[in-house]
Amino acid sequence: MRALLQRVSSARVRVGNEVTGEIGPGLLVLLGVSRTDQEADLQLLVDKIINLRIFEDDQGKMNLSVQDVGGAILVVSQFTLYADCRKGRRPSFLDAAPPAMGEDFYERFIAALRAKGMTVATGRFGASMAVELVNDGPVTIMLDTADWQKQG
Q1: Which helix (H) or strand (E) holds 109?
Q2: Can you tell me the distance from the alpha carbon of 84 to that of 76, in angstroms, rounded to the nearest whole number?
Q3: What residues are labeled active site?
Q4: Domain coordinates in residue numbering, the chain
Q5: Helix axes 99-115, 39-51, angle to 10 degrees
Q6: Do residues 15 and 124 touch, judged by C-beta distance below 8 A?
Q7: Which residue ranges of the chain lie beneath pLDDT 50?
Q8: pTM of the entire structure?
Q9: pLDDT digits (tens, 9 = 90+) for 18-59
Q10: Options 3.30.70.360, 3.30.1540.10, 3.50.80.10, 3.40.50.620; which CATH number does 2-138 get?
């Protein structure tokens, strides 16, 4: 699984004219699922995201997690995180999970965040969405569970 995290002061997602999810301070998580992802990847990613210390403490150091600061999380499905652009000029998405699998992991990811006590807003899986955000910092971090597996 891949997640692009952006620390935000606010973010929202629209499908057409409808706002499907909106948060104040917290994290925007663009989430991609690969064909080879397992339940362990989902749990690793949830734990990493809610505990990652990327919010500033009283001394201005990134020492607090989204959980520590009481922030919310906006999760938006993003299969294009698995774009392979090594050949030609048109990205290949063969590594991305098929839609049914992607949606299942997306829904379970959201449920796992909520089970940890997080306030979670969402986009709509498979929809054309407009995402608006105010990146705080800016802080943008890419997480990939495949990288963690390589490290053992």
Answers
A1: helix 99-115
A2: 20
A3: 78-80
A4: 2-138
A5: 40
A6: yes
A7: none
A8: 0.94
A9: 999 999 999 999 999 999 999 999 999 999 999 999 999 999
A10: 3.50.80.10
